[in-house]
Design goal:
It is elongated, with a radius of gyration of 33 Å. With 83 residues, it is mainly α. The termini are far apart. The chain contains 2 helices and no strands.
Length: 83
């Protein structure tokens, strides 16, 4: 042991190294377990934590009068001419 290093510094460094190794091993374990569960998870089954998703409203359409169609066509021409 070097003379200028106290026992507390040596123990602290040893503790930090051990914690880092344990953290890395835990991370590898969680990532491997998550990957294995991801392969086994059926894709057609919805996630249990999310509520049932409803389908949105149907598309609506409105019939335009000939005057409205002409006004819309004029608006489109005017906007396309500005480009």
């Amino acid at each position: 042991m070097p003379e200028h290093v106290s026992i507390y510094q040596l123990l602290g460094m040893t503790f930090l190294v051990l914690v880092t190794i344990a953290w890395g091993a835990g991370l590898v374990f969680m990532l491997r377990r998550g990957r294995a569960e991801g392969v086994m998870w059926p894709s057609a089954r919805p996630l249990p934590a999310l509520p049932h998703q409803r389908v949105g409203p149907q598309r609506e359409s409105v019939e335009l009068t000939p005057a409205e169609e002409d006004a819309f066509a004029g608006l489109v021409r005017r906007l396309s001419a500005d480009r």
